[in-house]
Amino acid sequence: xxxxxxxxxxxxxxxxxxxxxxxxxxVGLLLAIQEGKRFGMKPDFFMDLTLIGVPSAIVGARIYxxxxxxxxxxxxxxEIFMIWHGGIAIYGALIGALIGGFFYIRxxxxxxxxxxxxxxxxxxxxxxxGRWGNFMNxxxxxxxxxxxxxxxxxxxxxxxxxxxxxxxxFYHPTFLYESLWNLVxxxxxxxxxxxxxxxxxxxxxxxxxxxxxxxFFIEGLRTDSLDFVGxxxxxxxxxxxxxPMKLVFEAGDMTYGGNVRxxxxxxxxxxxxxxxxxxxxxxxxxxxxxxSDPITSTKS
Length: 300
Prior knowledge:
Radius of gyration: 20 Å
Order of helices and strands: EEHHHHEHHEEHHEHEH
Strand order of the largest sheet: 3-5-4
Largest sheet: 3 strands, antiparallel
Low-confidence stretches: none
Shape: globular
Strand content: 5-15%
Number of strands: 7
Number of domains: 1
Helix content: 55-70%
């Protein structure tokens, strides 16, 4: 097992998780700054956006998790603020970051859709890197697998296989699956944003579509999913959509006794909303502005 603590000075402890998340945010920021330069935007705008977006993401991630695990917190409200004890959710982080970013972007007089388009590759690269923080903490993994599956079937290097050995049991490296999915997604977004047909807002929703497709199928392997007891038809629908994965993998156990995984349901809803958004805007003629058009501020 890799020591999750990178540096312990006695008065302060620096974890690999924190270093990796910080690196993820920095790389995402640099991507946004570089693309913003094509439109004549100052780096300070994106730096300030990050300073607002990151705290908003942390708050959103915590609220999202607590909302779905309220029974664990309702009798101990102080625990809600003890985020270092664990308990955050990536979809909550995205919601929080978007809310915080929305008010900042509008305050600066820019179009929300134009800015989130620029930030989309930065978001997915942040998730690509950030998942390795889960690897360091031996969390967000899938169900049990054999050592030979990791070594001989997936041909993973020793440092990954060894880290997936938790108390003598080997687990699916779902962090790796999602990281690789996001790597391909990053390449897709970088190619899409140079296409003349792309309209404002569509790169951002393409990011959500790509990420949600991968998250839906990978989430089914995990053993720490937030879940709830839903109607049988909904559970059957989720299982039916995930069924192709059963040809290769076994689904992970539900953690909290539910029959529907929250992230899987949200992934499906996001894909539907994104497709409807792109289609309706095109059909109604609302998508006149292209990604490549100049970006201006009403406050300039």
